[in-house]
Specification:
With 610 residues, the protein is an alpha+beta fold. The protein is 23% helix and 26% strand. It has 14 helices and 28 strands. A hairpin with a 5-residue loop joins strand 2 and strand 3.
């Protein structure tokens, strides 16, 4: 006998207010004349169901914080952290090689300082003496011999640069960068004169300090956090703790251009080199640890579009959270919106003033409500420490297990809020070329030696055209002309690529059988009048190790260039610190690439003979 199913039907009624008038003016006034009707409405929506909970009116806060004390860049020993600049500047800044326009400006500023501070009777003679010093003069770009023109082809093909050099020479400009390097090496400014002069030496030191204030640079070219083989910044910092060893935080993969709490992790035991770890915990300053207690009045939290808690009060129509559309896979989005709409009036803020660059530990809060009842609010992890929780602002600690209670401190790094970034003066796109079985570092923007950047492809074409003209001017002919024969095909060893394409070839990592690295190589340049030479990069990023004697190889970790590739830019960045000081530095920034590329490079080609 088959079972019979029953069908339940649910009916309900809803009361709606409706006006019979054509005008809604009186209806929108929401006039109240029947108190019993209002009580009925309150009973209907559950307002009369008391929960014996009141609003917070008083809170007692107790917190302590430890300010970041020392900073170690890459594998260099740690130094006291600077409170006079944001942490981005200390971490990201790299050594800047001034272009000719900055060299001229430095010299002009030094002359202005001499005119302002030296006596009128002697200043003109001293300035003329500096202009006459050969070491402080600009020299023309060498082009006397064909080899000079070949070696300086990139400079000589840049017409605006030549005009700037000629103007500096004719105007008797002082090379301020040469003066700065001499003072940095320990020489006095008056060493360029015939006799010592204490006033000139003082001005020279002021000039040296002026440049260091204006352009933030590392103390030494190698004392920076940039890791060329990873194309990322690496650094570690420490903060003293009361009755405990200093807390060490490190960032091994910072390249985003915006530094924040999520870039830091608590350093794993023995993860840092011993020299770095030991220097981070040396002589912690006790004045960097403070404890504070405050009694505050909680304030309500509001956000645009927040539902109003009062009757007959309409919300701001500029933000309508109810019209947010969510897809089937956006569960978290809809849950967050629902939580904000239903419980928005249950959130309060407690004002706490804490300095930037500190680890903050907030002790349990004691809250007094409108009924005089006191409640002790603990950290949510203290309720069930053996259960893992998700936290948004937690700094990951690899030293603790997953089920162990995690660190409850809040990291407030000393970073800027607003940052101005100039146009890139360098841009290198690393892309994989599966057909040629190599990686290319494409210099899409190269320095123009005038303070900016120029298109790398256009610069490569201008340089190539200059080489062709130079080859023709020197009477160059093809050293290996084709033989006159009846063959219908010709053999080509390899094709060419633009000079701004720098190859990286796979090389087996030392001590490994399967792992490889990407090593910077070079394409040959063939001219009939000159011997074959390697095409060298123009960007500072790809020239790593070439300026040293002997030159060093440049290897990239293979995983740093994914199939999508990466783009690395070098640009000036400017920020204003909390004390009003302006900080300017030169730093790198890495973003995702645009996929694989095809250089067109081919080997061992058979072509039809023309």
């Amino acid at each position: 006998m088959a079972n019979k199913s029953t069908l339940d039907l649910t009916f309900w009624n809803r009361l709606d207010s409706r006006t019979r008038d054509k005008e809604f003016d009186r209806s929108l006034k929401a006039e109240l004349r029947d108190g019993l009707w209002m009580l009925a409405r309150q009973w209907q929506i559950g307002e009369l169901e008391a929960e014996d909970t009141g609003s917070p009116v008083f809170a007692r806060l107790h917190w302590d914080f430890s300010r970041l004390d020392r900073l170690a860049l890459a594998d260099n020993p740690a130094q006291p952290i600077s409170d006079e600049m944001p942490l981005e500047a200390e971490v990201e800044r790299v050594q800047a090689q001034p272009d000719i326009s900055l060299q001229i400006e430095m010299g002009r500023h030094f002359v202005r300082m001499l005119r302002q501070q030296l006596p009128v009777a002697s200043r003109d003679a001293i300035i003329a003496s500096f202009r006459a010093v050969a070491a402080l003069k600009f020299i023309p770009i060498a082009d006397q011999t064909p080899n000079d023109r070949y070696n300086n082809a990139n400079l000589l093909s840049n017409r605006p640069l030549q005009q700037m050099v000629d103007a500096a020479i004719l105007g008797g400009a002082i090379d301020g960068w040469a003066l700065y390097r001499a003072i940095k090496a320990g020489h006095s400014a008056s060493s360029f004169l015939n006799a010592p002069n204490a006033a000139v030496d003082a001005i020279g030191q002021q000039f040296f300090d002026w440049f260091n204030r204006r352009y933030s640079q590392p103390v030494d070219a190698r004392q920076d956090a940039w890791s060329p083989e990873r194309m990322e910044y690496r650094f570690a910092t420490s903060a003293p703790q009361p009755a405990a060893p200093p807390a060490i935080l490190h960032a091994d993969e910072y390249f985003h251009g915006r530094l924040d709490w999520y870039n830091f992790d608590y350093a794993k035991t023995n993860a840092l080199p011993a020299t770095v770890a030991n220097s981070l915990v040396q002589t912690p300053r006790p004045d960097r640890v403070e404890e504070r207690r405050r009694h505050v009045i909680p304030g309500s939290i509001a956000f645009p579009g927040m539902p109003n808690a009062r009757w007959w009060e309409f919300e701001d129509r500029s933000v309508n959270w109810a019209r947010i559309e969510g897809k089937i896979n956006e569960t978290a989005k809809m849950a967050l919106i629902e939580f904000g709409l239903l419980y928005s009036n249950d959130w309060f803020q407690l004002p706490m003033r804490t300095p930037v660059g500190s680890l903050v530990h907030l002790h349990p809060i004691v809250v007094t409500d409108t009924f005089g009842q006191r409640a002790r609010i603990e950290h949510y992890e203290n309720t069930a420490p053996a259960t893992p929780h998700w936290s948004f602002f937690r700094v990951f600690d690899a030293n603790r297990g997953t089920l162990q209670q995690q660190d409850q401190r809040l990291l407030i790094p000393p970073v800027v809020v607003n940052l101005q970034e100039g146009k890139p003066i360098e841009e290198v796109r690393f892309t994989r070329d599966e057909m040629a079985n190599m990686v290319w570092g494409i210099e899409t923007i190269v320095p123009d030696n005038l303070g900016g950047g120029i298109n790398g492809f256009e610069n490569a074409q201008a340089t190539q055209q200059y080489f062709q003209q130079l080859d023709q001017a020197t009477g160059g002919t093809d050293a290996t002309p084709e033989l006159d024969n009846n063959a219908a095909i010709r053999y080509q060893i390899a094709t060419t690529v633009p000079e701004n394409w720098i190859p990286f070839i796979p090389v087996r990592k030392e001590g490994s059988i399967q792992e490889i690295t990407l090593r910077r190589a070079a394409m040959p340049r063939f001219l009939a009048s000159f011997p074959a030479r390697r095409v060298r990069p123009l960007s500072h990023l790809l020239r790593f190790g070439l300026e040293e004697t002997p030159a060093r190889t440049y290897d990239l970790y293979e995983e740093e260039v994914p199939p999508a590739g990466v783009i690395v830019q070098l640009a000036w960045q400017r920020a204003r610190w909390h004390d009003g000081r302006v900080v300017l530095w030169l730093g790198y920034h890495k973003t995702n690439g645009r996929g694989e590329g095809d250089s067109g490079l081919k080997f061992d080609q058979i072509q039809e003979k023309r």
